[in-house]
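Submission sheet (multi-component)
Chains listed below:
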Amino acid sequence: MPGDTATSTTLVPLILVATRKGAWLVHGDAGRSRWRLDGPHFLGHIVSHLMLDPRDGRTLLAAAKTGHLGPTVFRSMDLGATWREAARPPAFAKSADGKGRAVDHTFWLTPGHPSEPGCWYAGTSPQGLFRSEDGGDTWVPFSSINDDPDYLRWMGTVQDGTPDGPKLHSILVDPRDPAHLYFGMSGGGVHESRDAGKTFAPLLNGLEVVEGFDVADPTFHDPHCLRLSPADPDRLYQQNHCGIYRLDRPGDTWVRIGRTMPPEVGDIGFPMVVHPRDPDRAWVFPMDGQTVWPRTSPDGKPAVYGTRDAGATWQRLDAGLPRAQAWWTVKRQAMSADALDPVGLYFGTTSGELWMSADEGGSWTCVARHLPEIYAVEVAQRAVEAGG
Amino acid sequence: MKVLIPTPLRTYTGAHCVAGSGTTLAEVLADLEARFPGIRFRMIDEQDRMRPHVRFFINGRAVHDVAVRLDDTDELAIVQALSGG
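Outcome: structure written.
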């Protein structure tokens, strides 16, 4: 009717895919049944993480480098239509003797607390923690981590890290308190700050390490992925090099909930995802961590495992996935959940396939094939006009 | 002086060859950075070290120190040096 400006909106998913050779934005419809690939962006760049700012719904940051060139961060204010390079990408402080560390690549991006618009955190390889207060244009290092003698010792050398370089990842911001932060280091353990990063302390009780090493030394701890329950920020989950864990604060002792996984599958993997509304529900993607660590799906039969009771029991969720001879895996930041109802789950594989489930893991559909090796998958909800 | 730009860096310069000025390689790179913001950090890390897969040649001779001297008649070639997938 005249003068009636009311419009109805609907939420649609936007999958952000970072790969070894570029990035893609995958637009879904409200039914999560039709998908449109927008990309590649930065073809040929090694994109470790692509993240949308949930506070404005349009700012994208991409952590990128190439085989030849140093690392940088690209920013888009228009959902990827145009990009600009950060004026000051994450970089360590310059040492007096010129022998200091240099960022090889920015690996992880986390938007800051909703009360701090423009604030972002970045984790790098080798391990470093950085903060931006201007939407990712300029980045400042945390000397409390990057230059601290204890932390430098715990980070170890490049040889102590993952095959693609040691990494600081899983930067978590408590939604109730912007000064309460967590992060993980591979290697170097799980750490927590309650003073906005002025100081950090290890949070390792209950975690296991490879047999024969000192469990009290953060050096030997290798968290692969930390997640905080959006519905209960006092609950954390972790996929570790040595099992799946849960931590309920204010307690400080992790409980190995992966012991209840089927023995033939085990509880080794990279990613972990938590239900947006139910803190008892979480999902993992197990991989083969035996003998020489093939880092493939166990027995070539990929499956997500989900728990509905905080890790007391697990259910295999593989309907629609290949039944055999599928030797890919899913990296630590390559699995994500949307906040729709029912929850959508998404993962990207080392073989360049993008899979999703619109029924919380009950069945899986391949959204895209033949992409480069997928490093990261994030999903955001966008409000669009109904029917748009 | 003449500075040859490799393909990965032409998004900054828009050209395969640009003019540079300075009496040392470090000064020439600073001059490029002033005109093409961001280009230096892709070649030189925060400790002022050359990145592993970027090489610099002055008149066809490889140099490994940003303090090396050059003059306006020299030709600086910046080269990507990496193979594999």
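Remark: Residues 78 and 117 of chain A are 17 Å apart (CA to CA).
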